[in-house]
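S., here's the first fold you wanted:
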Amino acid sequence: MLVRLLGPLEAIGEDGVPLAVGGPRARALLALLALDAGRWVPVPRLIDGVYGTEPPGSPRHAIEAQVSRLRSRGISVEHGRSGYRLAVDPEAVDVHRFTRLAAERAAERLRAALDLWRGPALADVAEAPFAAAAAADLEERRLAVVEELAEAELALGRHRELTVSLASVAAGEPLRERLHGQLMRALAADGRRAEALTVFARLRDRLGDQLGVPPSPELVELNAALLRDPSAGAGLTPSPSAAVSAVAGPRPLPAPLTGFVGRTEEVARVRELLASGRLVTLTGPGGVGKTRLAIEAAGSPGPVGEVCFADLGPVEDGVSLPSVLLGALGRPAAGLFPIRTGPVDAAERLVAALTDCRILLVLDTCDRVVAELAVLLRRVLTAAPGVRVLATGREPFGLTGEQVWPVHPLPLDDAVRLFHRRAAAAAPPRALTNGAAAPADAAAVRRICAALDGLPLAIELAAARLRTVGLAELANRMDDRFAVLTRGDRTAAPRHRTLHAVTAWSWDLLTPAEQRFAARVAAFPGGVTAGTATAVEPQPDDLLSGLTEKSLLQRAGDRYGMLSTVREYCAGHLGIADDVHARHARTFLELAEAAEPHLRGHEQLTWLARLDAEHDNLAVALGWSAEHDPVLGLRLLTALTWHGHLRGQTGERAAVAARLAAATATLPDHREEHALAVATAAAGRPAPGPYPPGPPRSPYLPLVRFMTDGPHAGVEFAADPWSQSFALVAAAIGHTLDGDAGPAEPELTAAHARFAELGDRWGRAVALEQLGDIGAARDLFRELGAVADLERLDGLVSDR
């Protein structure tokens, strides 16, 4: 089968008979597939290309229906995981034959390429959403071939024929300077100098009237040469600068010096986004690998067109942006190159240079000019439908249609692989390879990668340090990472040479208010919610959003957290005053005391989850208060007593409990809390006592004493329903240990019923556990089918 797009769409069967393709949607789909003949085209790109901004209710089904119509007419379209593809050799599509012939650049090949054109490209699918940009790109390529062929014909002395063909083409391209320059040379070589000078004069007037610019210096030079030497003609060629401008292309992607590790799925996903959208922004903290991911994604086969790379890191103001991008495109301010719309200032020249292009702009490190670049990109994307943009930065642009892909740190296994590769390159005698490293070395590498949050840049800096520092020493110095990781690639941008520099770059992008807030949030190692953030900022919502957009915070559900590297920098940059730590501790005391009664009732699992989420914050609050406010710490430890038991965290709190017990031993108003601290410090061993006399206020002190001292210690339980329910369990255990199991069954059955009424899943589970093989347990265990949430008792009952 043959497919023709360089004119009205045609599909020719194997027998040479034209195929009836179908209606506008089917024709648009065939054209879109043919432009990428032999390659998989993602479904989102097909939907966008066929239906644009108004897809049907089930766009994927609509594409499937159009594919079925094409297949019913004998057109082979294959389906796979990556989308659809037209099952033909690219040479069976005239666009691809045109591209191959044009690339050979010989005169006869250029003529053969132009002979494939039967009219305007995609003429009868021009209304399809994708068609305008594709047709404009193809027309630009056709004109470029016309100009290349004209140069060849001028060199061969075919002036007279050229005057006719070029005059016809130039009439349709009244502002295309290179084409008019070639026409002037052909006319002059044919002895028609006056006509050549007239061509220049008219072009000069049009450029001035319509665009407000003079002709290019090269064209002025050509005109002057004709005035000086009437015999001059085809032998006149543009000056070297013109020659450069005629062939200079976009700045290519930088060639990576190292291999790419991990992120295979991310590369594929970013490519899909580029295929389906026109603006994709990779966001993430400094050193996370945004640039490398962009290069890998843009360097693959993708949409038709060129790729241009621009590093915007050095750009400090938006005024110079258009000129920087023009330079990256290889487009001078003037010259013998296509100009189709009005380049009055640099921004308009940029828009004009891109209007008829199909190109992917890779704009790296947009952080310092994100607002100005957003305005410029809106102009470019609106005026140039063939342009796609892949940008990297700490924050998105906020433009309609922008697709944002957050770039996260490497998973630990990929981070370790990266470290091994860079270490082998940096210090071959110490080279580490997967599976070959000693266990201690493997553990050290994992410690390093975890301490550096899986940030590729930080890992590469650490691997480079192996030239002068041993692996074990390097791992032990990760607490001082900013002082250690100071020797990066000398040729890298300054912001990438040290860990401090890359983090400082992010810090400097913040407003003063954001910097203050970031320093305070750094006091929360477990992150913050909008609620807990009010401890350091009364109205935190805008600041949370701002720091998240700038990649200083990562959001997971309702929680905002910092990478440890970022947190360490923020904490040390301004310092964190004691009042911030005090506010932090008070906030989590309030949370723990609010949660405590719910840990024995119907909302037990909900409040356990809330406290679990704040594990790191609670640990820091306990540690700080043991040093600075022991009474607050004692209250916090008391409120967390039952949570620690249910989650098996009593042991990890033993050390801080011992410090609190020592600091509060002489406080008469907190004897019960002190006794709990002593018991927690004992970490499950019998506590030295003495326990406060009289009825207990806390339900936990009797429970802890029972667990450590046994059922015959004469424990007096509190009067609240939960304590009395556990008193039944304690009595049953005592009877069982005494060999008198008779009373145990009714006591445990009653305890189970009371715990069920209270909503305490832990109590119910303990009662059932103690019933064991008692016959009555059979009926109760049947209830497990109706108590589905007992399956969620992870961690509530241990040693089962």
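And the second, which I think is the more interesting of the pair:
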Amino acid sequence: MENKYRIIIFFLIFATNFLFAKSLEKITLQFQWKHQFEYAGFYIAKEKGYYKDVGLDVEFVEFSPEINIIDKVLSKEGIYGTTYANIVSEYLKGKPIVFVANFFKQSPLAIVTTKDIRLPSDLKGKKVMGIGNDINSAMMLIMFKKFGLTSNDFIHIPPSFNVQDFIDKKVDAMAIFTTNEIYYLNKAKVPYNLLNPTIYGAEFYDLNLFTSQEEVKHHPKRVKKFRDASIKGWEYALKHKDEVIELILKKYNTQHKTKDALIFEAKQVESIMLPNIYPIGSIDKNRIKLMVDNFKNLGFVDQNKTINYKDFIFRENRYNIPLTKEELEYLDSKKIIKVHNEIDWAPFNYNINGKAEGFSIDYMNLIAKKIGIKIEYVHGYSWNEFIKMLKDGSLDVMLNIVKTPKREKFLSFTSPYKEVIDSVVTREENAKKYKSLNDFNGKILAVIKGFSEEELIQKYYPKIKVLLVNNTLDGLKAVAFNEADGFMNTLGVLNYTIQKYNISNLKPAFDVKNKHFSVKLRIATNKQQEILRDILQKGINNITEQEKNELMNKWFMRHISNIDYMLIIKIISFTLLIIIFVIVWNIKLKQKVNQEIEKNRLQETLLFYYNKQESMKNIVNNIAHQWKAPLNELSSWIMLLDSKLFLNQDISKDELKRITKLMKGSIQFMTNTIDTFNNFYKDNDQKEYFSIEEAIDETLEIIHNSIEEHNITIYKNIEKDLRIIGNKNQLEQVLLTLFTNAQNIFKERNIQNPTITIDARKEDKFIIITVKDNGGGIDGNIEDIFTPTISKTKNSSGFGLFIAKNIIQTKFNGEINAKNILEGAVFNIKIK
């Protein structure tokens, strides 16, 4: 029975390993020579699992004379190779290869000579082995040329690849690799000189990793993974030479080298890789150009041949999706894509204080993230002006645009990303009078100039009198002031704008159900920029249903069939609660101040509570900001309820339950906001054993919305289980002052990519909290910032840091100081 279990376990292990192995992509690496330390980085990448970690199963193949490495790599996908400087000449001859990485910054190829030969010119009439008149000897020929020497000036001896021939004095000179043969010469104690072509300007690369253009085209990520894992292997190998040597002796020593020979080779390899000067694997275009010029001067390649570096050197796709060569070149030249941003087409596309907002904006941002491109929103123009800009090339992309026959003549469209309903709004007293567009024959219907509705109404309802307006608000005003009988636009946009401007005498009359008015929102580019359309379409194709649903839930409301009056009461109650809370708290503050005045501590107390009120102002602003979205959402639902009741539209029970759940979530969010506010303002001096990390996180939560709004990045490095005895709320007040000050500086100085870094650690008996920002530093005398003054910074009283220092010194028996660094300011808090 026991044996039976062993067999089963063995089978399961085998099956698991087999399945795992099957998941790896098999590739082959063809070496340019036999196994030795020259390939140490590749060995390590395999043995340490670096290849496996990126999903690769790599097979190494040694060189053999019958193999043409270039042709083998080009024979099929999944094959990589290493080669000499001929990688450049082979490309210039038309071989479709790609240079992936270089490892030897200097070639180890040199000429060993007898002691009497000191210069290349001394080789005249001598027996020289292994140097021909072909491209493999290009480095030697460059050196010879500088001394007026040609390959006809010495006696050619065919290569034996055995340094013993030089030791036995069969030749006067021979081509060798300094990484290997020098060891044997030294061991034999043979006197010699070395002619190194590198010294004479023949700076050629060696150990060049390459693959085929087909491999790069179809598997760019695999190429990058293989390259990066190989570089990682080399980084490890150079730091752990002894370990690599033991590995070679055990597993890869087909040349039967001794340990001493491998130690010598390892040192030589590192010396020509120059890892302290050049990044491992890097490729320098200038070095390639020098090699090309040398090949041309020697007549090995056509003088008219040039290198297309974009084709020849592997460029990892900086973008997040597969792109064609043409698409890559387009984006590389384009840099920034300009996208249209409307003024008031909420909730799809609008602008608040210079910031683009809306469903279409978020959708475009998601596309940009999927692709990996930079976009810039352009606003301040009418729809027709945007169309003209798209035509003349000053704008690249238009969002939420409907495809029409007229537009197809000059625009290219993506697939639709949102289908919406057009509705018609009328004055409240006329809402029941209009049931369809046919009822508007002879009537005035307002539409936005340049919108698809203008073209479609003129085509399918020529009897309707069209009033062209510039935007949604103008259309609603036209109806409200009897300039038009109705206004046609997207239902969501109508509801949003009516609510925003509190236009009370308008009602949705009907939804437009005519098939010609199917409003499918797309993204459009100029017809001459179809390549950009194709790139954007790839981004759209990579958006998941979950991501799209999240955006839908963020921006669009569901309809419910009756008004939840309890919900209205709760909203009003919560609003009153916060108002009452603030009033009561202010009364309480005044009482506190009076008590402290009687105790002869007027100045300190006034400053303390003034700062407390300043902090409270920040908190109330944050509450208002955090409540804005759920209140708008709830208010929108209520408004829609009214319109649905008016139109006698029903909704299913399941949908009602789902919407109720969402509404409860909004209310819970508002409740949590109040709880956070209440906890922060508990007025007591009670001490507790609290967590430093918890105090930091609670303070950040208070200003969470403001942090997100200003795109501030927070970095935290907090030791675990840092705790202290004291009043947590007082420490949080200090932290809030520091965070708020940094936030104000970012806004005032318009800092790009603002960051706040928070460190907390224990040193001896003290806890050190460091708050660092990149706001440009503190102006003037740093010590003055802890003195009460009238601040020049907007939204700041000037007392915050004075109170913060007072709290740290008197309540925590600690210290607080500040200093400037290169990018900003650093505040250090030291408490027991």
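Why I say that: The first strand starts at residue 25 and ends at 30. The domain at 422-511 is CATH 3.40.190.10 (D-Maltodextrin-Binding Protein; domain 2).

Talk tomorrow,
H.
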